[in-house]
Amino acid sequence: MNPKHKTIKVGVLTVSDTRTPSNSDTETFDSSGHELKELINRFNVIESATVVEYDCVTDDLEKIQEKMIEWCSERKVDVLLSTGGTGFSPRDVTPEATLGIVQKLTPGISQAIMNESLKITPMAMLSRAISGIYKKTLIINLPGSVKAAKECLLVVASAIPHAVTLIKDEKEISKQFHDQFNSKKDIQSKVPECVTKVACRHRESPYPKISMASALTIIKEQAVIQYTKNYKIMYPTVWIYSTGDELENNKNPCHNCIRDTNSLMIKQLLEQDNYKGSVFNGGVIRDNWNDLCKQFEEAFNNADIIVTSGGVSMGEKDLIKLVLQEHFKCYIHFGRVNMKPGMPSTFVTLNYKDKKKCIFCLPGNPVSAGVCTHLFLLPYLRLISGRKSIVHSFKAKLTHCINELDVRPEFKRALFKYENGEFYVSCLTNNQQSSRLLSFLGANCLLTLPSSKKQTSIKAGTIMDIILIKSIENTDVSALLFSRDLQVKNLRVRPEDKCKPDNTVCLSLKETLDFMTQKNEFILKSENIPTSSAMGYVIDAPVYSSENLPPYPASIKDGYAIKYVCDGSWSQKNNIFEVVQVSVAGTEPGCQEKISEKKCARISTGAPIPPGANCVVQVEDTSVISKSPDETIELTIDILKEPQLHENIRFIGSDISVGQCLLDEKCQLGPFEIALLRSVGCESVSVYKYPTIHILPYFSNLACGISIILENILKQDGFKGKIICHSFFKSSNELLELYRNVFEHRDIIIIINYDYDNFNFSPSFDIEKHLSIKSTFHNIISLEFGIIKLELEKKRNVFFNLGMDSNLVYNYAHLFILPFLRFSVGKKQQISSVITKSSIDLPISVYRYMGAKLDYKDGDLIVTGFGLKDENCIVLNQASQAKDFNTIDTTAKLNVVITENSDSYFIHY
């Protein structure tokens, strides 16, 4: 909008008996209202608008009207957006409340919303939402669901600023709108002939096939770090779209639909990689020239980086490159990469309104989209975020031979392990088709394989390059974890376990962790949550598919579906085929004509195979013989290469079949696992519930500071439960009162204790005494080095009592508290440890555990520093390794527990 335009004040009013503005409870949090505020304030979908009023009211007609009249009469808002209460339920009275006060109806706005909504789902006809004007305020009813409210707002957002100026009778500003509109090119531009004249399309891609290394070099050249006025890194906004007529945004009772998994998967991959910028999921764009132009225009106005999946190959509906090049005059740096999967990957830049925009156009197959996100998008985002390492590459020993290589360099999904001080890699499955998300299960890396033009096979034991995509499965446990030299006091164990006279038992770190978890039978609780929100959770039971994928026979390539007769006479025949129909993504299966001999159907990737056809010939293996006079239709084609029976066809259930086990119990859900579940319509999943953690600082503000450090450690580890940091307590009576009123079943209580000089705690702060926890109901662990005291009470509350030395809190959080929490939510891997060496002599610490920096160099993990700010591991100190009292030299083997990621390698728990 022109700078002369005034700010448009918006009010968002949520109508619901169950929703609240507070985010303390995810089940009642007002997601719809929050999403509308984000769209307006952060993404500026209504130009020059900002949300100045926000509230939730119950489904009560008088209360709704009271709030609307208050906001409108007092001129608090220019636009009032209500969300919720527009359906058929007796409680849905928002339209009646609106009708009771508006002085003019605005049916055009309501009709526009209804028309666009019906394109998405026929259920839109069940909405009764209206819009109108009360005094000088425009009121628009929106649905209550997050998705529907967002989609409806986007339909009318561009018209709202002009509507406001008309309502206020601001003639000068209204004239500016008309002038601005008339000066712009019509977004529904004329579709160029290269799109309409299908018969003249390229038989092969016009874009040269460049190497992966060249593609990454180009991306590096375009990456520039932006800074704020305070010299902090400015993280660009990212918008993500999926494209395709065949895609459904949400659950559909028809099993013949293909669900959009890519947009959420890519968004979650960015979240998993800790990208700090705003990421917006734009959902699905249809394969339509005008829709693509409109959505790209909106994205360019609101985002710096646009990511699409689908529409970049050579099918009739693959329009992404053409829209960007012909309509927006973008510069396409590369349109093909010599790799498998992901060959059509495209990287584009555009100078739009004096701002640089970067567009990553990824293939539509889920595996290809996931692989290319790791190989192209994430490295770019790491570069502009100032990270040192943009590709997390390792070298590992191949555990088996590989005899069949592809002509293109391939990135196979594989498992990377650390075992006995060495790195190993192995492929998980031979079926790694780019549509098959199951090939990602259990994988944590991409194994880089050379082209078959360079070599025909690879022997077992060969050192290979791999790129990490998620956590390393660590099968090696440091020796010290089993060494029984950890002095544990007051450990209540089984009668057969022997203790010293002072009630001290010698256990290994591993045994102590086992005692804290399995032996104490901490009760695992389950909950059912939306699949889209389940990243980082662990499922509590196997998940089986209720659908086939694909739900119909589908084409793997752009080309022609034919009926191939395998009788050995192909070379003697005249192989001219008549094109009798077209099958594109989105074509309804079963509504096609039967294909007979010498007939064919032009077909796009993912489109249903017509009846009678038994193979698909790729475009590159054909030539056009005749076409219609206007060149929009191919009439006959010549097939230049003999096909194979069932070639380039995915049959029903070939990726996933009904009843197939998708995920095993205790599988941790990441972007690929969630995409897999969503691909077969699994909209909710049963997972292990995260407990609530109360952090209780005792006696001083110093304890409060330690509690904040601890909270950050928990969040960095991906803890998704509630973390409540209380104000510090000056007396045990305050703590007792809180315990009686707040702590619930399965809460975890961490106390930051003032008296850290006394290993057995001061009598004034004895938990047993003041919280009346009977010794017959619980187990206690009190460690000799530093202070940590664990108690399991009969209600299954768990208490940790820590000192206020920040180093000890850091160490014990990673060695005891985090492993316990990981166990409590069903994670298999509680602690990650390696055996390594040091590049420098390490001092003997006064503590058993030393914070240090771990790096990956020349194929090895190595400790490179001690006591640094960027420490990412804990060295388990053994004085016996030192040649003198002061140091451990570089010849000694070190037992290291990894605590966090670094820029030079990428290891999770």
UniProtKB/TrEMBL annotation:
CDD domains the record matches: MogA_MoaB
Matching Pfam families: MoCF_biosynth (PF00994), MoeA_C (PF03454), MoeA_N (PF03453)
Presence of the UniProt keyword Transferase in the record: yes
Keyword Zinc: no
Family the UniProt entry places it in: In the C-terminal section; belongs to the MoeA family.
Key words, A-Z: ATP-binding, Magnesium, Metal-binding, Molybdenum, Molybdenum cofactor biosynthesis, Multifunctional enzyme, Nucleotide-binding, Transferase
Cofactor(s) listed in the protein's UniProt record: Mg(2+)
Pathway membership: Cofactor biosynthesis; molybdopterin biosynthesis
NCBIfam families per the UniProt record, alphabetical: molyb_syn (TIGR00177)
Gene assigned in the entry: GPHN
Gene Ontology CC terms, in alphabetical order: cytoplasm
GO biological process, any: Mo-molybdopterin cofactor biosynthetic process
Entry protein name: Gephyrin
MoaB/Mog domain residues: 11-163, 239-383
GO terms for MF: ATP binding; metal ion binding; molybdopterin molybdotransferase activity
InterPro entries given in the database record: MoaB/Mog-like_dom_sf, MoaB/Mog_dom, MoeA-like, MoeA_C_domain_IV, MoeA_C_domain_IV_sf, MoeA_linker/N, MoeA_linker/N_sf
